[in-house]
Amino acid sequence: MQKKDYIIQLLKYIIMAIVVGIIVGTIDALFGRVLIAISEFRTIHYQYLLPFLPIAGLVITAMYYVFSKLSLKGMKLIFEVGQQKTDAIPLLLIPLVMIGTWLTHLFGGSAGREGVAVQIGATLSHALGRKLNFPENGRIMLVIGMAAGFGGLFQTPLSATFFAIEVIVIGKMDYEALLPALASAYIAAFTSHSLGLEKFSVAIKNTINLTGTKTIISVIILGILFGLTGRLFSFSLSKLKVFMGETIMNQYLRIGVMAIPLAALLFIIHGSRYSGLGTNIISAGFAGQTIYSYDWLLKLLFTIFTLAIGFQGGEVTPLFSIGTSLGVILGGLLGLPPMLCAALGYAAVFGSATNTLIAPIMIGLEVFGGADMVLFVIVCVIAYGVNGNISIYAQEKI
């Protein structure tokens, strides 16, 4: 391709990125603000809502079967399009995944939200690309949409950009999409913030110097344990989804029956502490409030079970919760500042589970500031290495 043609094509993608960023940022604001309101309502009235979690599961499944069964593939469908295995993402996926996730959270399922935002962004950008005849590289349009979805919801455009270009294919950075993805992520973040969606950020006051042997060893241990935790989450989620699908093939039966013990346990154990996103645990970790030694493990197990039986939502915010609570506990055991370790866990467990490296480092920068960037780089690199190419997004491939 000649330089002139390349510049023209790049400008076209940037224009599309701006359009996608505005639209996806607007949808993210709606989705995020409703989800916050739902979560606050459930926290107050969980004893009346959790018993109906199995019924909510049946309603979610029925919605997909009636309106767009193909959309049940969710993120799998996005990766299939990115790998050119298929070229169809139904626009109905957008309202279905939004409503399905709202219902999951309203009735107390343990799930995240980023998968929803990424699916919304990718679906919309893919549809616009096809409508406006962007045949040159459909994957770039997907990356633009994924970055916008993540960036608009979390308002971390740098991490959103690298998340999108790292995660679409394992072991390969799609640098061709870097500039348009960055533009869409920033526009989406600005749009959603302008519409009232707030960014989560924490100022870390305590830090450590990597001068003593004991401190260096402790930081290495953190990276290893965070990496193993992300690997455990990804491996267990993948295996349990397969097991549930093969053991209870009827999806109505699977979600309706298995949600009964899920709801009961969520109700009994600390009164819905492990329902929803896990932002309550994140807030507790950074506010110096009570964090139980088993918080990270129970949040991990409840989230895996919720998603494996068919409820809608994402994994990233629960991963932030798991990393935060584990970091607080490990900080106390290793003699390191618990809040700093919580921040490192927040980023590194996410990076390990998603098999991304630069994205979690950028999360550290955008959420916690740049004062401890060296620590974030070291811990995230170790966690990434320990992961061994296992990802929550099983459809990625080299």
Elements, N to C (H/E): HHHHHHHHHHHHHHHH
Describe the main β-sheet briefly: none
Find the CATH topology of the largest domain.
Answer: Clc chloride channel
Number of domains: 2
Structural class: mainly alpha
CATH-defined architecture of the largest domain? Orthogonal Bundle
Count of helix runs: 16
Strand composition percent: under 5%
CATH classification class of the largest domain: Mainly Alpha
Q: What is the straight-line distance between the termini? A: 25 Å
Number of strands: 0
The CATH homologous superfamily of the largest domain is named Clc chloride channel
Tell me the radius of gyration.
Answer: 20 Å
Shape: globular
Subcellular location: Membrane
Membrane topology: Multi-pass membrane protein
Organism: Anaerostipes hadrus
GO molecular function: chloride transmembrane transporter activity
Task: Write a compact overview of the structure shown.
This protein has 398 residues and is mostly helical. The chain has helices at residues 3-49, 53-67, 75-82, 93-106, 114-131, 138-154, 157-167, 178-194, 213-247, 251-268, 279-287, 295-308, 316-334, 338-354, 358-368, 373-387.
